[in-house]
Amino acid sequence: MLVLGSLCVVSIAQATTYMRVEKDGTKTYSDRPIPGGQPIDVQPAQGYTAPASPGISSRPEQEPDNFRYQSCAVTPENDSTFTNPDMVPIAVITNPSVRPFDTVILTVDGRSVGQPGTMSYTMTAPLDRGTHTVSVTITDRSGNVMCSVNSAFHVMRPGLNSPAARPRPTPH
Length: 172
Known about the structure:
Layout: H1 2-13, E1 17-21, E2 27-30, E3 38-40, E4 71-75, E5 80-83, E6 87-95, E7 103-108, E8 111-112, E9 120-124, E10 130-139, E11 145-156
């Protein structure tokens, strides 16, 4: 059986190809003799072997598991008060800067603002009076929390009858 298999391999490797040129100039090829055909020498197909991959990945290299942000903060600072603001700027501050493969989620009053990765947001009028909360969570690509910080700030909107809204008499 082994001899028969090796004979088949040899016969395939040594197969002859025949070519005939037709009256209109087209060429006909065959692996069997054809009337008016001539045997031709067919070179083996050119192969290609890709070089070994140097191990480059589309993902950045894994950071050591012990990476931590030295500081992580959000503005406005906790317990800040704004009186009649037209806007309140909110910003995330980290040291070192946020790594490109970490995800930043910024929420205001429990709702995500901006896209993942948003580092600043501006609340604009009308701003409701009362206390507002800002939360930031930064996770690594595995979902581990790398930083989490919360802040609460207050918006004051004095009414017309409020002592802060009344004009004060000027001393004479």
